[in-house]
Amino acid sequence: MNGEEVSGSVAELRRWRLTATTVFPKVLTSDVSQGLPERLEFGTRVQEMSCTIGSLEVSMRAAVKEYGEVLWDPFVSEPVEIVITVKASDAVSGIELCTPTLDLIVDDLSFQLQCPLKVCELEILDVTEPVAIGDDRDMLIYPLPNGYDQYKLSRSVAMGNVTTVTLPALRDSYESLPRRTQDALDWYIKALHAQFDVDKYIFYWIAFEVLSKAEAESVEEPTRLRCGHTLANCLECGKSTSQFRQAATAIKFIESFGVDTPVAKRLWGMRQLVHGAKSFLPEKLKELGELTQVLRYVTASALKKSLGIDQDGYPVVGAGAPSVGVPVGLGGRRPISVRDL
Predict the structure, then answer these.
(1) Is the pTM of this model over 0.70?
(2) Which residues are CB-contacts of 167 (< 8 A; sequence separation ≥ 6)?
(3) Less packed terminus of the chain by CB within 10 Å, N or C?
(4) Spatial distance between the Cα atoms of 266 and 275, rounded to a whole number of angstroms
């Protein structure tokens, strides 16, 4: 879906205004050529401008909404609004029409500024004319602080898939772990700290691969030709074409922890995506939350084995629990204000 498409029949279309708020770092305006001054001064980077992209009216401006207690330091940063006007039948359809273009804009601005911009609030409001202050209109908002996540920055939380000790305790001793075990634990802890699903998956997979190199049984298979046929022996010398197969080895190691073959293959397929071998597409990432749970279970199980912890002992990490996305949209109606006109 792109900005040139519309949602619903022409008779049903309404005019919607999507406002995405992000935060720009201010530019340093103090002269520091002779050293640091007593006080640093910063200036705005925001230039108000507008354009038309397909059927979408797009503009950028300094934020007109008053945020009160903000989540950024107003001395060195400032809120910016990207405003997109679209015709759609409802708020959800309007967001679906706008977000592909919004993602491109945010990516471009992030690259220009070399700064990870985040849409910290997103609202879409019905502004179908005639419209006046006080009119009660449909709206949908992804409020501060979570706002709206681009598909590559998706976040989810699994509900009830981990059971831990009630009272953690210090161990009698903390001896150095074997190098591979420590490496895997380091990456596993990085995954626990990671905010985004893609990052979690990458870190869990690295930990899994570290452990599989030490624990997994290598799988060798003959060469498969592009036509799909298998060549067991070289036609010239007769030697076997069998060699180590990373995918088959990884899938077999995953299966050793009770994961079904189709799911194990999906885990490997997602590994290909996050390693860059496949395109980073929204439809592919929709299953990331589910697969991250399974990969965490497999990696935790392999790590417990490496640490000498019984598989029935704590922590117990499961998979298959429901997960919820972190950004939550709130729909309803609100009156039109001065800043909406």
Answers:
(1) yes
(2) none
(3) C
(4) 14
Do 304 and 313 form a contact (C-beta atoms < 8 A)?
A: yes
Q: How many CA atoms lie within 13 A of 140 on its CB side?
A: 14
The three-class DSSP label of residue 97 is: helix
CB atoms within 10 A of CB 169: 6
**Under 8 Å between Cβ of 92 and 18:** no
Cβ neighbours of residue 73 under 8 Å, at least 6 residues apart?
Answer: none
Strands (E), 26-69: 27-28, 42-43, 49-53, 56-62
**What tokens appear for 261 in the block?**
């073959």
Number of H helices, E strands in the chain: 7, 17
Q: pLDDT tens-digit profile of 4-62?
A: 444 555 558 999 999 999 999 999 998 888 888 888 899 999 999 999 999 899 999 99
Give the separation between CA 162 and CA 105, rounded to whole angstroms. 38
Distance between CA atoms of residues 50 and 265, nearest Å: 47
Cis check: omega of the bond before 315, within 30 degrees of 0: yes
- Identify which of 320, 300, 319 has the alpha carbon closest to the alpha carbon of residue 310: 300
